[in-house]
Amino acid sequence: MAILGMEASAGEAPITCFGVAIFREEAGMLKKAVSLATAVAFVVLASVAVCAHEKKNVKKLTKEEVPKPVIAAFEKAHPQAAVKEYEQKSWQDKVWYEVEFKDGGAVKEEKYSADGTLSGSEEKIDAKDLPEAVTKAISGSAPGAKIVKAEKETHGQAVTYEIKLEEKGKFREMKFDEKGVAVKKCETMKKGAK
Hints:
There is one protein chain. By secondary structure, the chain is of the alpha+beta class. The protein is built from three helices and 14 strands. Strands 5, 6, 7, 8, 9, 10, 11, 12, 13 and 14 form a ten-stranded antiparallel sheet that branches. It has a two-stranded antiparallel sheet with strand order 1-2. A two-stranded antiparallel sheet has the order 3-4. The N terminus is likely disordered.
């Protein structure tokens, strides 16, 4: 007897799966296909979850609401800066304070812990000022995309570049290290998103 294009061995009884009679060999192939599909679905869902977890809780603050050590550290480092805004951000039980400011013509952000310790900075830069390795990586991973925004981020000794790209009316962000290695490839945004 042939079922689903396979011949039955003498005395082999078919197994019913979703109302279809199959033999052990077919059942094994079906089991492998289901396992592979499950693994692919898990990877896709995990990637979406990682990108979703990157969302932070953000609260705009007045200068008076920012901890005094943060204000003192910032004003000591940048006495002539014009502050644009203060924010409190939290993610995974960590809280920090960001100060966005303009100093010497450049727009920057600095991140501080509540005790006034500087933990990182971001500076908007022109696309032409990106390292060559980063521009090559962008060309290779997103050919035809236009760089809309570029930021240089510093955390301790680590320097990364966060890039906002526009491609066919859609925006996405990517992050690269100085050698052009992608360290973040997610967060697609709608047209017009900041």
